[in-house]
Amino acid sequence: MGFTSLDWVVIAACATMTGFSKTGIPGVGIVAVPLIAMIMPARQSTGFLLPMLILADVVAIFYWRRHVHWRSLGRLLPWTWVGIALGYICLLWVTDDELKPIIGLIVLILIAGAWIRERTVPPDRVPTHWAFAACAGVLAGATSMMANAAGPIMTLYLLAMRFDKERFIGTQAWLFWALNLSKLPLSGRLGLVTARSLQANLLVLPAIAAGGLLGIALVHRIPQKAFDVVVRITAIVAAAYLCVSYWL
Predict the structure, then answer these.
(1) 40, 42, 130, 163: which could form a disulfide with 168 (CB 3.0–4.6 Å)?
(2) Could you list the residue range(s) of the whole structural domain that residue 180 is in?
(3) Around 81, how many Cα atoms within 13 Å sit in the side-chain half-sphere?
C-alpha cells in the first residue's frame, strides 16, 4: 500500500479528527470518511479507517471510563451485534456507496422524529421501551458495518437519554469500542483490513492521541446546551453528506 507525501498528510489529519471526535465533539470524525475515500477505493477506505477508530476508542474509554451508563450499554450491545451481522450480509450484495444515501435518509427521518418528540414529550421523560434500544442498536450495527456511519444514530439515541456530555461521551466510547472490535474479524474476512493497512494505522497513532487530547481539553470548556446543539448539527451534516455521497 504505497502512499504519497500528500496522502500521508490526509491520513494524519483524519487520524487527528478521529481522535478528537472520540473524546471531544462526536460527529466531527465523519469528515474523515470522505477524505480517506479520496486517496483509496471506498470499500477499502472503510477497512482502513476501522483500526484508527478502535485506537481512538481506547483513548476515549481510558479517559471517560468513569462516565458510563452501563445499563444503556447493556441494552444496546446485543442489538448492535444483530445489526453487524445484517450489515455483513448486505456487504456481500450491496456496495457501501449504494447504501450511504439510504442511511442518510434514515438518520434525517430520525432527527425529524427527535425534534417532534422534544416538543411533545416532557424534558424529564426518557424512552425506556426495549424496542427503542433495539431499533437504535440494529441500525447502528448495520450502518457501522457498511460504512462506519453509526455516529449520527447513536447521537440521537444518547440525546434522547438526556445524558450530560461526560456520560454521553463515555457511554458512546465504550459502545463503539465493543462495536468496532466486533467488526474487525469480519472486515478482515472481506479483505478490507490487511496486515499492511494495520502497519499504516500504527504509524499515525501519535496523531490519534493528539486529537484525543485536544478533544479532552476543549470539551470541558463547552457548556452542556452548546454541546447538545453542536452534536445535533454534526449529525445533520453527516446525514446530509451520506444522502448526497452517492452522486459525488
Answers:
(1) 163
(2) 5-247
(3) 8
